[in-house]
Specification:
elongated; 2% helix; Porin; mainly beta; Immunoglobulin-like; 39% strand; six-stranded mixed β-sheet
Length: 554
């Protein structure tokens, strides 16, 4: 009765080019075919659907047949030896023959294959969600996505579903191919096999594809692309008993996470799918489980697509039904305008009576928040801005930080400022160093400038204090040096738990050193009154524009 052996091999993480249709990471199916007729079920989509490519190098292949459900209903089963090329209910591929009318080999499809000798068919491709287009009131040549470690009998698999039962409640007719290439009636107690195709009669309509069904937001896949951060899947239990489900990620390096049920301590939290997932309780008969999944693009290469598969392995409760969900996500370009806030919560105590380290910031009683505005050109240059305006320049929008007072408001789409930062030595932006390393966890950017004595934001300038003026050398203002360090990465504020971290939101630790704010009691003599002031906190930024050019030439 059985005539094939079926193997599954996971190939690994696939990185595809932009033009490639993205599904999931590649897997391999292997079929051990006997001499004569074989009935197989292909549950993956071949990389190349051309039959000459799928069967390339297998000289024993004599013919390949696919039942054409659109040709009408099947009332009786015809033995393969009686088939003729170009017969109405079948599409056929004959190597090198002009009579071939089977132009493509696709997944979720059953095939009859005739060989002149034993051979192995190896198919490389990407997973598909189970799908069967049942022909009502007809025999159907079908197969199922099954796990070889948890197979069951035909009666157990189809018995709970009335569309596969006759009027007396017995199982509908099932025919499997035996070792002699003949269709023989299968007993209800016969075991189903992975990769096998067989005929079964379907009374009326049906959507049955197994005891597990997964619904995704897109057409058969979870493609997060460059935009999406979260998607939901719904897992339905179509078995006749409650069943728990587990999910495995292959490869585990794919940046997929699942959302945990909210609690009083953690309203929203995420766990990496790399460690697997098991439903907290069994899914009842006819019930479903909705699970929110998300990706973190931190560290992904811009424009590169990463692929993986999310697997629901078969179990005794699922009667061997398994599901593979293809996954893909594309790394994003971090170039553009980023806006957010710095929250300072530590400052050094230069006048501490208790002898505290004057160089180490200490916790403050309250927080201080101010705006931070950064622009990255998508390559190597990052700048701190004190203001930016996005305007329509002809047909394209551009961003200016300099000479914006002359820009007409009617062409302005967005204007934003960071008033904590004054004039950067005559300009409105300050370049950070070293080049590159923007937004990547663990990377560090630094900037340094001197706030001039006459800068309007200089704290020594005060319109109502006669000593705070710039025209008197004895009682004038003083220049202030500011050193800023940004260390990208998740912090104690839980920022790394944000599912869009590394793509739509970035941040980390903010540190700044002030020199020149303390009064010099004894000029030229170092003491605690001349010490630097150190502050520390966190910063978080969101991307507000994808425009990577700053201050374009007219």
């Amino acid at each position: 009765m059985r005539n094939i052996c079926f193997f599954t091999v996971f190939v690994g993480l696939a990185i595809s080019l932009n033009w490639k249709v993205v599904f999931g990471a590649q897997v391999t199916r292997e079929y051990s075919l006997q001499s004569g007729w074989n009935a197989i079920y292909l549950d993956i989509e071949p990389d190349d659907s051309d039959p000459a490519t799928v069967f390339n190098g297998i000289s024993q292949i004599e013919s390949v047949w696919m039942w054409n459900a659109n040709a009408g209903t099947v009332e009786f089963i015809q033995n393969p030896a009686e088939l003729e090329p170009a017969e109405a209910p079948y599409l056929t591929w004959l190597p090198g023959s002009i009579l071939s009318n089977l132009g493509a080999i696709h997944g979720n499809q059953a095939y009859l294959i005739k060989t002149t000798g034993a051979c192995t068919l190896t198919v490389n491709g990407e997973p598909l969600l189970p799908a069967i287009d049942w022909k009502p009131n007809s025999f159907n040549l079908v197969g199922f996505h099954l796990d070889a470690a948890h197979l069951t009998t035909f009666d157990s698999f189809f018995g709970p579903y009335p569309e596969f039962l006759q009027s007396d409640g017995s199982l509908a007719d099932i025919y499997a191919l035996d070792g002699n290439g003949q269709w023989v009636a299968a007993a209800p107690t016969d075991m189903m096999e992975e990769g096998e195709a067989f005929w079964i009669y379907c009374w009326g309509s049906s959507t049955f594809t197994g005891t597990l069904r997964v619904q995704v937001e897109q057409n058969g896949r979870l493609d997060f692309g460059e935009v999406l951060s979260m998607q939901d899947i719904v897992i339905y239990n179509l078995s006749d008993a409650p069943q728990s489900v587990s999910l495995d990620l292959n490869p585990t390096t794919f940046p997929l996470y699942y959302q945990n049920p909210p609690t009083a301590e953690a309203p929203i939290s995420w766990s990496p799918m790399s460690g697997g997932y098991t439903s907290p309780e069994a899914i009842g008969v006819g019930e479903s489980l909705r699970l929110r999944l998300g990706v973190k693009r931190a560290g992904l290469i811009a424009g590169t697509t990463y692929e993986a598969n999310l697997e629901l392995p078969g179990s005794d409760a699922s009667k061997g039904s398994r599901v593979e969900i293809p996954l893909s996500v594309t790394g994003v370009d971090l170039g553009g305008l980023w806006a957010g806030y710095v929250t300072l919560n530590q400052v050094s105590e230069i006048n501490s009576e208790g002898g505290a380290d004057a160089n180490t910031p200490q916790d403050t009683g309250s927080e201080f928040t101010f705006r931070l505005l950064l622009h990255h050109d998508g390559s190597t240059t990052t700048k701190i801005l004190n203001q930016a305006v996005e305007v329509l320049d002809g047909v394209n929008y551009v961003i200016y930080s300099d000479n914006i007072d002359n820009i007409s408001s009617e062409n302005c789409r967005r204007r934003i400022s960071a008033p904590t930062f004054g004039n950067f030595g005559g300009g409105n932006n300050l370049q950070m160093t070293p080049p590159g390393a923007f937004g990547v966890d663990g990377s560090i950017l630094e900037a340094n400038w001197t706030m001039a004595a006459d800068d309007p934001l200089n704290p020594f300038i005060h319109a109502f204090n006669h000593e705070h003026r710039t025209d008197n050398t004895s009682y004038g203002s003083y220049a202030i040096t500011r050193d800023i360090t940004l260390t990208f990465g998740g912090g104690e504020d839980g920022s790394e738990d944000f599912i869009g971290w590394g793509s739509s939101e970035i941040g980390g630790v903010y540190e700044e050193t002030f020199q020149g704010l303390t009064r010099e009691d004894n000029p030229g003599t170092p003491d605690k009154n001349e010490a630097n002031i150190y502050v520390k906190g966190t910063f978080r930024l969101r991307k507000i524009s994808d425009i990577k050019t700053l201050n374009p030439a007219p």
